[in-house]
Amino acid sequence: MTMTTNTDIRALNDKITRQSEFVTLLTDGMSRTIVGQQHLSEALLIGLLTGGHILLEGVPGLAKTLAIRTLAALVDADFGRIQFTPDLLPADVVGTMVYSHKEDSFSVRRGPVFANFVLADEINRAPAKVQSALLQAMQEGEVTIGEETIELPRPFMVMATQNPIEQEGTYTLPEAQTDRFMLKVVVDYPNIDEEKKILRASMAGDIAGRKVAPVIGIDTILQARETVKEVYVDERIEQYVTDIVFATRYPERYHLEHLKPYIAYGGSPRATISLALAARALAFLHRRGYVVPDDVRGVAFDVLRHRIGLTYEAEAAEMTTEHIISEILAKVEVP
Predict the structure, then answer these.
(1) What is the DSSP letter of 290?
(2) Which element (helix H / strand E) includes 222?
(3) Can you point out the beta strands (E) in 134-262?
(4) Do 105 and 169 sit in the same domain of this protein?
(5) Are residues 286 and 161 in the same domain?
(6) What is the pLDDT of residue 165?
(7) Residue 323's Cα: distance from chain center in Å?
(8) Rounded to a whole number, what is the distance in angstroms from the first to the last CA of the chain?
(9) How many domains, in total, are found in the chain?
(10) Which domain holds residue 55?
(11) Sign of torsion over alpha carbons 317, 321, 324, 330
(12) Helices marked H in 35-111 — which ranges?
């Protein structure tokens, strides 16, 4: 990127301030339905601004599905929901060819994946062959049914939920599937004050009965995505992003030799791209035209936690990907 002058940065800041006004509408709309969970709402907005797919993990009852449905309702766009179950078939996701006796020919019947926002609810409750039906759609923005390849609508975003793998009746997502999710967000329990608010709202019927009206349209999202691509990333920030990802692959180069026995594989180049793009989106949400190190650190856990493979030694030592990322962020030099 060639833009480096203060004048250019100020002009970009002014542009982002004007174009990011809709963020307040979305955050206010989310907060009226979702109690707490600010990090969850922020992650969903990052996915919305970048076109990245989001994987939410948490025990049942933490408003994962409600948050996704609320965001989709706030945007005037097509919404599709797929409830993943063990007996689901790939054709139930992408569609299939249907024979018409009247016309004596086959035609394409499109599945629920043909929507702007697709909720893949409890994605790890279906076998791998069904999960992989989303691979082409998530990566290439198109689906092949029979001999016909059909483009998906723009914008297109998959927001999936899954229960932790310790729960009954679940299937571990393949690495090729999880790598296509830009962010993996771990949803935790609300604090005690938030739980009281949830209880009161539920008793008053506010959560179940509240209808969410659209506040923005698709054109606003597409325009914001183009603006996010203009957010300035300094060369030192680029180096910082690259160093963080490389430290997941070669920890010994960053004086983290003790982590090497615990890492089976590190982040792919897709992790580097996602880390920079998510940091840009976070800067946009903060009404800023340039990325700072705190933006990178703020999205590092969600971008990397599902892209670091752990060895048996790590499991034996109870070493988690969060612990590894924390040590990397503490060791890699901040510009």
Answers:
(1) B
(2) helix 218-228
(3) 142-145, 148-151, 157-162, 183-186, 216-217
(4) yes
(5) no
(6) 63
(7) 21
(8) 18
(9) 2
(10) 6-225
(11) negative
(12) 38-50, 64-74, 90-94
Do 270 and 207 lie in a common domain? no
> How far is 91 from 114, CA to CA, in rounded Å?
12
Q: What is the CATH number of the domain that holds 200?
A: 3.40.50.300
283 and 198 in a common domain: no
Residue 1 lies in a domain: no
Residues of the chain falling short of pLDDT 50: 1-3, 209
* Closest C-alpha to 185, from 326, 39, 31, 26: 39
Any domain includes 154? yes
- Strand-strand pairing, 157-162 and 148-151: unpaired
The pLDDT value given to residue 1: 42
Instruction: Find out whether 303 and 53 touch, Cβ atoms under 8 Å.
Output: no
> Both 178 and 271 in a single domain?
no
Which candidate, 260, 270, 101, 254, places its Cα nearest to that of 184? Answer: 270
Q: Are residues 158 and 305 in the same domain?
A: no
CA angle (19, 20, 25) in 5-degree steps = 120
Is the same domain home to 235 and 324?
Answer: yes
Tell me phi and psi for residue 278, to 5 degrees.
-65, -35
In the sheet that holds 157-162, the strands lie side by side as 79-83, 117-121, 157-162, 54-57, 183-186
The rounded distance, in Å, linking the Cα atoms of 91 and 94 is: 5
